[in-house]
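Reviewers of the previous submission asked for a worked example of the structure-prediction workflow described in the proposal, so we include one complete record here. The input consisted solely of the amino acid sequence. No template or homolog information was supplied to the procedure at any stage.
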Amino acid sequence: MDRLWAPWRISYVGKKKKPKGCIFCQAKKSIVNDYVIFKTQRSICLLNKYPYNNGHLMICPLRHISDISEIKEEEMLDMFESLKRTKILLQKVLKPHGYNIGFNLGAAAGAGITGHLHLHIVPRWLGDKNFMPSISGTKVISQSLDELAKRLKNENGFGHRRAEP
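From that input alone, the workflow returned the following structure tokens.
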């Protein structure tokens, strides 16, 4: 019998209460956050703790805004420069065949965090769709977040230091 082993998911499955405050604002304030891949003057890039696929990253402005209509031009440019940097980084480390990139604006659009605007970049591989999500509602992620964060940071030239240009 094959087994799916994803021990980091227990904190999500067993969670009774949502953490207080904005996860993106908490990440940007943290001195050390293992899942922050890099931070710029106006944005932050971090791993999604509950990824759709291996390498699922999120990029958000440092300023706490909830809608794309509120973004300033310099924040938008910085976010898209971060997106470009993130895609190059993922291509080097994971070598995906494609990407899903986008915003989920509002709960009706699937946004799990509606209070802080963020952009998703999800690596995709040919054949990464299989029976597990369709039949059992389960997605298999083959790499731990800690291992992936370490690889992305090392490739990015930051190792375990806080990633600020």
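Strands lie at 36-39, 43-47, 57-61, 98-103, 119-124. We consider this example representative of the routine output the project will generate in years two and three.
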